[in-house]
Each structure stands twice: as structure tokens, then as C-alpha cells.
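Record pair follows.
FIRST:
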Amino acid sequence: MTDTEVGPVRAGAAHDGRPDGMVQLLDQHGVRHTHPDHEVDLEPEELLGLYRDMVLMRRFDSEAEALQRKGELGLWAGSRGQEAAQVGAGRALRRQDHVFPSYRDHGALLTRGVDPLHILSIFRGTDHGGWDPVAAGVHPYTLVIAAQMLPAVGYGMGVQRDGAVGTGDPERDTAVIACFGDGATSQGEAAEALNWAAVFNAPVVFFCQNNQWAISEPVSRQSPVPLHRRAEGAGMPGVLVDGNDVLAVLAVVRSALERARNGGGPTFVEAFTFRMGAHTTSDDPTRYRLAAEVDAWREKDPLDRFRTYLTAEGVLDEDFEAQLAHESEALAERLRAGVPALPEPDPVSMFDHAYAEPHPQVQAERDEFLAAWEQHDRDVHAGGVL
């Protein structure tokens, strides 16, 4: 591998290591900057809320990984290092907006109030997502790469046709955000989704978390140009934002969502970040990634950066940190107790949600399955099956 393939910054970077044109409000040293097009002005309580979300997201992630190592989860897709991107995007949403996540967007779900146990139930294999998609405004996780992008566009076209776009009513106008990784941009569904959204002016924000690696493939082997520039070919604006800067992500995504709600159409946002851990708990990143790259990105840790800023501003104090540490530990204890107690799924439940309304073919398959299951029980009781 060459330095270009695995280095922490792509070719064409600015002198301070940032890619050219990247929106940044908080640099890696925690120093606040201004931007002519993207700004946020938050109250101290809002800043602390962002920090709380990021800390709890990281603790959730570390506990989930530990549970998988103990055998309580079948797999885990970690999100360490991507806290600023996910929390910033999640907090930019309004109540009526809808999220179409990938399997790694735990932070976005937590900001929407999804019970963390309902996220872990997927990785334990007890269901396909325990939350109510309508109540939470979050589509179930999509484990197939880029498969959530086309439904996101379809949902956006639906709310558009329902008259929930461009009315000027902040309680009604709706936007959709499709969350995906850099690897998803290499899939055909991504190209189709971008094209449909642009052609139909759908109220969709395409939120790409470029964490530099699609499993073992660096982004340099996926695209010869920065990912956000793909928006030009599709016919929509593209914005590059520092994905480790929660303030910049909040500002950029909030603006893109507002544009979508007002009828301005789709936007492609590339959040430039880094996956600090493995792709999943079945992956060994040391086989394809240099330690020097990880060390370079560790200096840009989104939590350390934001904490430095809040402390310097006098917003974060020891009392709040102590309270947050207690809350983090309570979350961890709840997960450790709750995951093993998740109920085993009813085998027949797989037929219950195939269609919104009863379907004769599904009903026939359900009856056939039940008959076979009952026969199996009879054979076991009769001693005919070991």
C-alpha cells in the first residue's frame, strides 16, 4: 500500500491537514472558528446536550463490543470515532423528519430516543429492530450496503406528494436523511438514489460518513474524486464537512435539511471522519490498516476536541462530568442486565410483518410452517426425533 492509499488525509489537502473546502467550526485542538456559510449559535445547555449524547454513544458502543466478546451478541458494528458525525446529524432533525440508517448509525438512533436495547436486539438475533419506525421516525436498520438509500428517496417523494414539503409550516414540512458509509457510494443503489432524488427534487439529505475504509478497502480505491463531488453529476449541491466536529456537522446538516423541507431538493453531505475500531467484531483492521494512520486520527478524537472547547469556554465543569459518568455507568449496567434477558423470538412472528395488510400467500406459508412445527413437536414427544 502507498501513503496515498492509507494516509489520514486525501490528496489535495490544505496545509493544516484538512481536505480543501472542508467546513470546520472546531479544529482538532478545540479552537472555535467561524464560517461564512455555516454557523451555529447554541446555548450552554444545548452544547452540554451534544457532549452528553456523544459520551453516552461511546459508552454504548464499548459496552456492546464487550457483550459481543462475552457471547451475548452475535456480531457488533462499532462506531467509535464517528460520534460527532452521528450526533450532529441526529440533533439537526425535527420531530417529523425520518431517518434511514445503516447498521452503524447508533448515535443517530439514540438522539431520536430509540431504546438502546432495541438496537442490540438486532445483533443478538431476537428481532429485526425493536423500535416503532413511525413513532421514532427511524427506519429499521439495513444490513445490505446502500439498500436504505432508495427507500429513503421513495419516502421523501411520498411526503412531497402528501403536501408536507414547502408549506412554510415548521411542524409539518418534512425532510428525510439517508445515512450511509463511503463504501455504499460504490453500489448501484447509491447512483440510482441520487439520480431519482435530483430528478424529482425529493426532500432528502444524503449523509455519507466517509470513515476512510469500506471494510479493508480505502476510499482511494473507491473513487478518484472526493465523494461529495458526485453530487455535481447527479445535479445537487455537495458539501464536505469535518465529521469529527459536531458543531460543523450540526450546522451543515441543519442547513441541508431546511433546504429540503422548503422544497429546495436534495443535498449530498460528506462527513470526513474515521472508524477507530474494526469494521465489525469479526474484522481485524491491523491486517490492512497502518498503525500510524490510526494514531494520526486519534489526535482528532471528536470527544476530546469538544471537551477541550467546552472546558475552555467554561461550559463544562466537574459536577456535570461526574453526573455524566454516573449516567454512563447506569446505561452500561442496564445493557449488561438487559441483553441476556431479551426474549427469544416467536418463530411465527417472521410472517407477521411481511406486509402491512394480510396476504393470502403469506398466510398459506404461515399455516404450512405451523403444521410442520406441530408435527415436529409430536415427533419429539414420541421419541422419533433426537
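SECOND:
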Amino acid sequence: MTKEEQNNDEHIVFLGESGFPMGLAAVQRITLMAKTLLTEGYRVTVICRKGVWKKNSKINFGVKGNYEGIDYIYTSESVFRPKGFISRNIQKLKGLYGEFMYLKYLKKHDKINVAIISEMNVVHVLRYLIYSAFLNFSTVINFVELASSMKDRNSVLTKVKDYLYDHWVIKLFDGALPISDRLMKYYMAIAPSKPAMKLPVLCDFEKFGKGKNRDTEPYFLYCGSMAYKEVIDFIIEAYKSISENETTKLFLIVSGGKKSETGLLQEDLNTQFNTEQIRLFSNIPYNQLVDLYNNAIALLIPLRPTVQDSARFPHKIGEYLASGNPVITTNVGEIKNYFEDGKTALVADLYDIDAIAEKMQYVLDNPVDSKNIGANGKQLGLAEFDYRTHGVRLRMFLQEI
């Protein structure tokens, strides 16, 4: 029997994340997990309970459809986020009710084998677990962060919820897909009787197959969230150390945060630099993001020696590698498991401004060797992180669930 004949009656549902199919890292991971399952003949559906896009967004998809073989639905019956407080809450309630009714419909008329859940809010997780008991389907946590270690989740109520999530709720899932060794060990310690499989960063390397435009000005590139403003400041200071030659720029692609926060960052850059040595990008389309990755002389992702950074594995590392350009990072967490300094990446031993600046200077001084490092990194990425390589493992894990 073919894989399709074996699994075409198996249906995997994704819950907890809205924004599909155009979101950033979290949505991209769900998309690639779903495409991995498609390679093994599974049917997949992504259920978004609320609209998240602004009315003026260039959205060209409906509330229900199919994207690259993946079925999806917005149970709020709108992909847009209403402006008014009352309207937003009405949509949330509508989405919550619609989500349950759609799951009930699938269970009655179709089939749900496993729900892969990407959610850290205890209230919603418990709701999904109640649904799973009522409708009789298994649940797996998409385990990519240790909630209680995240600095931006600092309100008292959120800290209480995160503690409950990390120490109790996580045990209630039927299995887990940790993204890192640290999260794998954590889950195995707290839920030793439950199955778990490490699923690292995933990437579709075919989307980065475009040629490079070598006529562009040379630049280093960092892509990250405004939640990591500390890291953005760190990179700016490292760039200052090697920026005497203004022909090499620094491009910063930032996401998340408020528009005012991005504005303040731009004002700060204007104050620190007389010329446009640093360019700031935000809310750019994915094809432009890929183009910026492909044409950078090096891509920056310094990880801090914290519980948060040693537990996570940033999605953009896979995309950085897919560009074929050298990655500059630090020897923290999953980096130790995959990369060798000077061979597949430029890895600083310490999270230190001078150490990162030294790696940036190496790229400027050794362009040929740096290109070779980038090419080796891409080959590593193809072997370890291309979504197609994980299909059999993921199928065997879900069959165990």
C-alpha cells in the first residue's frame, strides 16, 4: 500500500494559533508541520478561532479554503480583527463557539485522530483538553517555548498561568513535540509516561532557490521580534565596532510590538547615526523577506545564555541557512547540537559584543571562506531541517499516540 492509501483516512487538526496562512514564525512552523504530514498521506486542517489582520491588510484569502494542500477555516467567520472593543469580544465569542461546533462537525461527519495544539494560555489549553475528552481525540503539544522563562510575560496573572502551564497542564497532553533538547528533557521529566519526539526548526528550502543579486550593497541582516529589543540593541553595538567603513550596512527586520515602539527605534537610530548605515524594515511581504535573506553577506542570530534562549530554537535559523549565506550566532542551546564554528556557521563562544563583532569582521575580511561556510550551512540545513526529512518520524510518533 502507498502512504496515501495507508493514511488518507487519518486527519490531523491544528488548534491554538490564528493568522494562517500568512503569519510569521509560529504560523510558519504550523504550515511546515502540516506539509510534513501531507508528505505521509495525512489530511490536515488548521482551525483559527479569530481574525487577526487589519482591514487595510493586503489579504487575498477567505475564511475557509485550502493553502498548499492544507485545509483551513476561521471560525470567527472573518480573517480581520475588528477595531472596537465590543466588536472584538463579540468576534472572540463567535470564534470560540464556532471552533467547538466545527470540531463537533468534523468528529461526526469526518474524523479527528490527533489535535496538535499551539497555545500557552491555560484557559484555552484546558478548553481544548475538555473538547478532546468530550469528542474523543488525542492531543499533542507543539512545545517551542518554556512559558515561565519568557521575560515579556511578566504580569502577575500571566506568571501564575505560566507556572500552572509548565508544572501541571503540560502533563495532561497525550504527547509532545519539543523543539529542543532542553524542552525534551523537561517534558520527559514532568510527564515520563507520555511519548515525545524532538522536532527541530523546519524550513521549505525550495522557497529560497532564487538567485542572488550581487549588485546590491553589502549588508548584515538581523530578523526578530520587538520583544527581543535587548538583542536588537546588542547587535547595533556590535555593528558599531566594525562600522568605520560605511559601505557595509546593517539591515534590521522587526516584527511584533506596537507601531510606536518601531517609531522609537527608528528615532534612536537616527540619533546614533548621521548616515543611513542601518535600515529598518517592518511588516514586509514574505517574498521580500526571502530576497533580503538571500542577498545578505551574513545573517545574525545571537542567542543569550538564558533559560529562554537555551530552550527555544528560532524558526529563522532554518530560513537563514536556506539562503546559503553564513549565519553568525552564539554557542547556546541547540546551536551546540548542530553547528561547528568555521565550518557550518560562525559561532561565538560567548554572548559578548566584541565576540559577535569579531565574527562580523571575519566575514568582511574573508569573503570566500564565508561563502563556503554559508554553503556548508545550507547543506546541513537540508539534511536536518528541511520539512520533508521528518515525515516518517512524525508519522511513527503520531501512530504511537
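COMMENT: The longest strand covers residues 219-225.
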